[in-house]
Amino acid sequence: MSLITLFLFSAIILFAAYFLYGKYVFKKFKINDDNVTPSHTLEDGIDYVPSKPIVVLGHHFASIAGAGPIVGPIIAVTFGWIPAVIWILVGGIFFGAVHDLGSMVASLRNEGKSIGVIIQNNIGKRGKQLFILFSFSTLILIIGVFADIIAKTFVNNGGVASASIFFIVLAILFGIVNRRTSHKKSAFLIVSVIGVVLMYYFVYLGMQLPFVLDYQVWIYVLLGYAFLASVTPVSLLLQPRDYLNSFLLYGLILFAVVGVMVADPVIEMDSEIHISSDSLGYIFPVLFVTIACGAISGFHSLVASGTTSKQIDKESDVKLVGFGGMLIESFLAIISVGAVIVISRQDYISNLASKGPVTMFADGLGSIIAALGISESFAVGFVALTVSAFALTTLDTCTRLARFTLQEYFEDVKNPVGAKISQNRYVSTSIVVVLSVLLLQSGEFTTLWPIFGSANQLLAALALLAVAVWLIRKKVNATFVTIPMFFMFSVTLTSLGLFAWKNFQEKVYVLSLIAALLFVLSIALFVLARKSLKTELEKPQKVLK
Hints:
By secondary structure, the chain is mainly alpha-helical. It has helices at residues 3-19, 21-28, 38-41, 53-65, 68-76, 81-108, 115-122, 125-156, 158-180, 185-208, 215-231, 238-263, 283-290, 298-306, 317-340, 345-354, 357-369, 376-410, 416-423, 425-442, 445-448, 452-473, 479-505, 509-538, and strands at 276-277, 281-282. It contains 24 helices and two strands. Strand 1 (276-277) and strand 2 (281-282) form a beta hairpin. The radius of gyration is 22 Å and the shape is globular. It starts with a helix and ends in a 7-residue tail after the last helix.
């Protein structure tokens, strides 16, 4: 079987799903442009900014993609490439796209607030507090880990650091020019073309002008940048940077597809399915925890209901941004699988242990892109730079999301300190950055990271729970949400149970306790949701005459 066949089959399935299943889902959520979006009703020029759908898609896609749809699928190929592909396609269409769109629409109908506030409105205040504490802790963990990953990348590759700095400067200039020429329809297209051309030129220039700093210095520089990106207007830095960066990934996908058509590589890996792995465990639940981005990821709900919903111009834009953005990411995950199945399973196992998934992705895809006549070393460098650029995007988006989450939590704290944190974006962002620095200095995140996969998928299950309760209270049949929800709960509860037991046996009691607490948290929120729905159903119903 050739890689062309796999790519073509996957593209047709995902494309058809957008128009067929997507149409069904859009009707269930009753998307209507007569509903005025929060970006207009609460427009403040900082967080709530109505924007063009292609710009919001760029921000959303760049934020949710990161390294997730690359790392997870490549590791999951350990169980065989066929189950990985099946889960990406089925999960992306029936789980992830519904999860992302549902989180976004529910947020739009609740003043652009996060899933935590939606839980409060539909499940109760206690549910909101539990969810926000969990999601805030997860975001701080992501900020710490990605700051560490990016800093180490910059130390080892000064060219990537230089190109990233050039990108930030370019994004600021793009944002300024775009804001001043927004009244001219043709100006946006012209500015976009110039911006994208300069961005690709900076890829080359960055490799020629490497910039080197110590690891610790990079940590403070990166968190300083994340602070600025969190407090400045989205249209000045965050949005234009994500928009321009998205063209790096679009280009990567295009080069990969054309490169495969030219090179016509054959799938060398066998089609055997492996039920268990010595390093990972059993295919259930590990496969569904390992492949998060690309199939379904709880982090997406934080982005969809955190930054993206505040930029949606009209409700129909969520079709492309929410549902379509997830399916594009699923195709990227298919490309990731394709980059490593052109070698034998023996070589795959060996390279995964020695090189890691990101390097395997860069080497595999770089060699395919080189078939277009591009230098293989440049192609590999371009792929690696693209992955790093999106890791940086995840860092700044997470900082803003953590700020939103902290502010929403302290909206309920009626004292001067709570009011200061909830109302002042500089104070709340400072708290986020300080906690991230403390986490990095303690080094504890390296211990906690293994549990992140389960925590992230638990977040997805809880987001689906919030959307399901919201729909049911609106008298909408939510079966298309509850089926994915129950499956994700079964995955995460099994994973957390096994993780807690394994670490208890190995006497790693801290991780065992954390896994147990997450297990209890999910059960508690589920019970609160059931109680809320029971109370709703027991209310006397109005009789239509």
